[in-house]
Amino acid sequence: MLLAVSCTACGHVARFMASDVAQFVNPTREIELLPFRCGECGGKECKVMASEYDRDRRPDIIVWRPMRLR
Length: 70
Ligand SMILES: [Zn+2]
Hints:
Blueprint: E1 2-7, E2 13-17, H1 18-21, E3 46-51, E4 63-64
Parallel strand pairs: 2-4
Antiparallel strand pairs: 1-2, 1-3
């Protein structure tokens, strides 16, 4: 499953693999409450949309991976 996080302030969209995100957050937590932060404007007002990962889609989709927590 793919998570598309769009910034409501500037429209920047980042995509994550849901399986990657689940490694860093409590999977029982509401997905809309995840502490995403816009990499463009730093805004925290984000809209999260979950969608099926479509391998046939045009390859212009960049899938971001959360930074490793050390
Ligand atoms: Zn933004």
